[in-house]
Amino acid sequence: MTEALLPPPLPDPATIALYLDFDGTLVDLADRPDAVVVEADLADLLDRLATAMPGRVAIVSGRSVAQLDGFLGDRAFGLAVSGSHGAERRTPAAGHILPERSPALEAAAAELRAFADLNGIIFEAKSLGAGLHFRQRPEIEQEATAMAARVADTHGLTMQPGKMMAEVRLPGDKGAGLRSLATDDAMAGMIPWFFGDDVTDEDGFAAAAALGGAGVLIGPERDTQAAYRLDDVAALRTWLNELADAAA
């Protein structure tokens, strides 16, 4: 068993860049991907951070940039965003870089939708991927994950397992998303801190460490490449509020 991780110390906000996963990190997980709630206190916190650390606060998510805009509204445009597991990005300086959907992805999405309809689980359409959510039918996890893996292999795509979901998408990962954002003028030379909860965030933890920064796991203890840990979403928000106070 790995040694228990301690909570992260509070760094000098002038020296760091924040890279924040969304689901399970900034917001609590929900039974449906569209049921996530961004409360007023989180919106205010993101505004405070973006003002105190201009250009150095990023959302790095498996969701598309369009989905994140739907949750965050206009304030998303003041943040750097890496979406679709690093396959797309947007920064205030460079704008939105979004690859085209391929015929292979369209075909894979159609197969996943048919499987979801047949088995009474949730299909999620994304800009550069498609997902199966089986939180309400956990007994189908193995079958759904195996099906998603077959579809990905057939169409030359990537299958990404997550918390009670499986996604088929264009190749990429959150570590690549972090490294891409780290080249932005505002981020360059800053120490990267990556916060995430899921196995999909491990690439982000590793990328942050390789660039001289650190990863912070949100949630229960497990094997991880993160250097620190916070118990839950509420604990992260408390930590971020302390950082915003220090930055101001």
Record the SSE blueprint.
Layout: E1 16-20, H1 40-52, E2 57-60, H2 65-72, E3 80-83, E4 88-91, E5 95-97, H3 103-119, E6 122-126, E7 129-133, H4 141-155, E8 158-162, E9 165-169, H5 174-181, E10 191-196, H6 202-210, E11 214-218, E12 228-230, H7 233-247
Parallel strand pairs: 1-2, 1-10, 2-3, 10-11, 11-12
Antiparallel strand pairs: 3-4, 4-5, 6-7, 7-9, 8-9
Structure characterization notes:
Helices cover 34% and strands 22% of the residues. The longest helix has 17 residues, at 103-119. The strands form 2 sheets. It has an 8-stranded mixed sheet with strand order 5-4-3-2-1-10-11-12, with helices on both faces. A 4-stranded antiparallel sheet has the order 6-7-9-8, with helices on one face. It contains 7 helices and 12 strands.
Keywords:
248 residues; alpha/beta; eight-stranded mixed β-sheet; four-stranded antiparallel β-sheet; 7 helices; 12 strands; 34% helix; 22% strand
Q: Which runs of at least 5 residues are low in confidence (pLDDT < 50)?
A: none
As laid out across the biggest beta sheet, the strand order is 5-4-3-2-1-10-11-12
Biggest sheet: strands, sense, closure?
8 strands, mixed
Q: How confident is the prediction overall: mean pLDDT?
A: 94
- Count of helix runs: 7
Q: Which descriptor suits the 3D outline?
A: globular
Global structural class = alpha/beta
Helix proportion: 25-40%
Task: Name the helix and strand elements from N-terminus to C-terminus, one letter apiece.
Answer: EHEHEEEHEEHEEHEHEEH
Distance, first to last CA:
40 Å
Number of strands: 12
- Rg over CA atoms: 18 Å
Strand content: 15-25%
